[in-house]
Amino acid sequence: MIKENPHRINDKIVGVREVRLVGDNVEQGIYSYQQAIRLADDMNLDLVEISPNAEPPVCRIVDYQKFLYDKKKKEKEAKANQKKMEVKEIRFGPQTDDHDYNFKLKHAQGFLQEGNKVKAYVFFRGRSIVFKEQGELLLARFADDLAEYGKPEAMPKLEGKRMILFLAPKK
């Protein structure tokens, strides 16, 4: 499987009379295509088309392999610096007591401060579905207690045996 080059180089640049040269090792300006190719050959480097849609197309005289290497390296660094957001789950019962509630509240605060989303849900077992109002009050209290760390994305909603609330971290 041969991967096609993302840029046109040297004699692959066709249908162009003039190019705009940019870069470190050349005087910037508009050159004829033949002049640009000759300059690249004199320096034993490649003429690489950077922006084909510009008028005239923008080219750079560089070593193409080094150019690709530097580009990959920059992309890898950018990817490494991205923050991945996770969704952390916290489960309650409809009759969760204060100690458990406070314990889970501290965990949720930590998750939100780290920049993660929190999915808090009340799980109803058997006949405890009768206590829907208690679950809703519990999640409302939870969202209210975490107001300085995150904001709810929507009102608590019942899905099957679970009442779910999503909290997003504040920036």
Structural class: alpha+beta
Percent range for β-strand residues: 25-35%
Cα gyration radius (Å): 29 Å
Tell me the distance between the termini: 44 Å
User: Sheet with the most strands?
Assistant: 5 strands, mixed
Low-confidence stretches: none
In CATH, the homologous superfamily of the largest domain goes by the name: Translation initiation factor 3 (IF-3), C-terminal domain
Q: Can you give the mean pLDDT?
A: 83
Q: What is the CATH class designation of the largest domain?
A: Alpha Beta
Which range best describes the helical content: under 10%, 10-25%, 25-40%, 40-55%, 55-70% or over 70%? 25-40%
Molecular structure report:
This protein is α+β, with helices and mostly antiparallel strands and 171 residues long. The chain has two domains: 10-80, Roll (Ubiquitin-like (UB roll)); 87-169, Translation initiation factor 3 (IF-3), C-terminal domain (Translation Initiation Factor IF3). The protein has four helices and nine strands; from the N terminus they run ββαββαβαβαβββ. Strands 5, 6, 7, 8 and 9 form a five-stranded mixed sheet that branches. A four-stranded mixed sheet has the order 2-1-4-3. A hairpin with a 2-residue loop joins strand 8 (157-159) and strand 9 (162-169). The protein is rod-shaped and about 80 Å long.
